[in-house]
Amino acid sequence: MWVMNPAITTSRCPAASTSSPHPGEDPLTAALTWAQSHLDGPLGIDQLAAQAHMSRSTFTRMFRARTGTTVHRWLVTQRLDRARHLLESTGLGVDVVAARSGFGTPTRLREHFAAALGTTPTRYRAEFAGRRPDDVAVARPRQ
């Protein structure tokens, strides 16, 4: 059973806008859902831990057990998924896609695309934009 520790407050991470989880709501799931809706801003372990009302070490341990990966790798994957969606479904410029997906700059977006997908955002858009989901063999990030 999850019990909120009153010693853990958002004062350690003032940028986190936390709210108490609803009764029965898994705090880790709630924090990850919150993070997915805030990918365009800076996110870190301390902010996510505060969102889950956990210490950094407890959050990190539970996160790794649940996802099998690190917070950083999970965030990059989520941001790549957001960027891919925006490239496939909008005509936004690469600079706007980079900002909305949390990479900040087109250069960082291109670096992550090259490392994970072996292509550039522009080439990705040219190949996948406007296709129906069942027509596309989903390109997944490299592990």
From TrEMBL:
A Pfam family reported for this protein in Swiss-Prot or TrEMBL: HTH_18
Ranges for region Disordered: 1-24
HTH araC/xylS-type domain location: 29-127
Biased composition (Polar residues): 7-21
Entry superkingdom: Bacteria
Stored PROSITE patterns: HTH_ARAC_FAMILY_1, HTH_ARAC_FAMILY_2
InterPro entries linked: AraC_XylS_family_regulators (IPR050204), Homeodomain-like_sf (IPR009057), HTH_AraC (IPR018060), HTH_AraC-typ_CS (IPR018062)
Record's keyword terms, sorted: DNA-binding, Transcription, Transcription regulation
PANTHER family: HTH-TYPE TRANSCRIPTIONAL ACTIVATOR RHAS-RELATED
Protein name, as recorded: Helix-turn-helix domain-containing protein
